[in-house]
Amino acid sequence: MFVSLRFGIVAVFALSLVACAAPAQTSPAPAAPSGAATGPAKHTGPRDVIGGGHLNVLLGDASLPTGSGVQAIDLGIDAIAVTDGNGNVTTVASFASPQVVNVLQYQGGNAVTIGQGSVPETTFASLTLVVDRASSTWVDSSGTSHPLQLVNEKTQSSAGFGADTVLSPPPSPNSGAVAITFDQPFQVAGQSVNVNVDFNALESFAPQTSSGVSRPSLSVAQQAFEGSISGTVLNAAGSPVTHAVVVAVDGNGNADATAATDQNGNFLLHTLNGGTYHLAIYNTYTTATGWSISAAGADSTGTVAGPAAGVSPGATDNVGKISD
Hints:
The protein has 324 residues and is mostly beta strands. It folds into two domains: 3-225, no CATH class; 228-323, Immunoglobulins (Immunoglobulin-like). The protein contains one helix and 21 strands. The protein has one helix spanning 201-204; strands spanning 3-5, 43-44, 53-60, 70-84, 89-102, 111-119, 122-140, 145-147, 165-168, 177-188, 192-198, 219-222, 226-234, 245-249, 255-260, 266-273, 275-282, 284-286, 292-294, 303-311, 316-323. Strands 2, 4, 5, 7, 8, 9 and 10 form a seven-stranded mixed beta sheet that branches. A five-stranded mixed beta sheet has the order 1-12-11-3-6, with no helix packed on it. It is globular. The two termini are 29 Å apart. Mean pLDDT is 82; it is low at 1-50.
C-alpha cells in the first residue's frame, strides 16, 4: 500500500472549506509541525498549485480483535490537508458535506480513495484528516448506532503506538469537527503519488463501553514503498494464541504497526515502509484508548521478543510460526 510516513501535526485547520469543485479559499494555517521552521504559514487550495504533483489519499484499517462485536466504524471526512516542513498547508480535498467511510470495510491492506488533488512537489511533514463529529458513528452487534466520541487527549499504547498522532479542535465556528494529524515525512515528486492511511481500529477504538471512545492513532505509508509482515503465534503445544498483540518496531525503536492475532493465531501487519523490523508479542496490552487486551492460550504472560522481518515494497514477509 503506501510508504510509511510520520507527519507532523497540523492542528488548527479551518473546516469552512468549500467543496472540491469550488474555487480554493485561504484560511488560517495550523500551528507548524514539531521541528518545522517558524514564521507565517501559507495556506493553499487545490487550484493554487502550479507545476505540482498529484496526491491520492486512501483510507483503510487494521481490524479489531475477534469477537469485538462491532459492525461498523464510520468516519465523516470533511477535508484532507498536507503540511510541508515550513508550515505551509495545502488542501488536498474538501467536501461540502462529510464523506462517510466505514473503515471496517477496508481491512488487511485494502483501502478506499477518500480524496485527491494537486500539491506542490516537495517533502511534506504531515497529513491531516478533518473529521466531522456529528457524522462519525459506530454500530454495535445488535445494529444500534452510537456517536463516535473522538477525544483530544494525547495518549499512546503499551508499545508507544499513537505517539505521533495528535488531535486538535478546529477553530470556531467549526467546533463540531476534529483535526487528526499524523507526523511523518513523505515526498511528492511530480508523478501521481498514492498514500495509504491506516485508522487501526485496534488502537483507535474502545468497544468495551457504549460511549465508543476513540483516540485515532494512525499509520501512513506511500503505496509504492509499502510492504507487510504476516505470521502465526502458537504456544508450546502448537495451539494458536488468540488476541496477542504483535508490534512491528523499526530501527529507531518506534512502533510502526500493531495487530491482534485471530482465532488461528494469525496476524498481518501492513502500512509499513520497506526496511527491517523487529517483532514484539504482547500477551497483555493497553491500546492508545486505554483498552486492556489479554491473550488466550499463551504460555507466557509477558512480552515475547519475536523475529526480525524484512519488508520489501509490494511484498508480504511471512515470518512463519512464533512461539509464545
